[in-house]
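Input record (one chain):
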Amino acid sequence: MIVVFFVVRRISLVCSSSSRERTCALIVGGLPLQSQAVDLKYRPDIVICTPGRMIDHLHNTMSVDLDDVEVVILDEADRLMDLGFVDEVGFLLVIDG
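The corresponding structure, as predicted from the sequence alone:
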């Protein structure tokens, strides 16, 4: 599984719609948690998400973990840090590692 963290939900939407050959889940705020939980349950090849929503699922959705993650991509990592996502990204990387 590849996990791609984006700063902005709008960018996540565009990137998730361009994946055709692999299964993809879009995990961002503003979309229903239940349908996202179902998507994650089936272990998609690529997960495109925002850090906060992924943490929400890790804490509140029983079938979600990061055990199958092989690659983590931090899109605009400097901006993630500048916007105050240091703790969230650190948490996600420790859970994955």
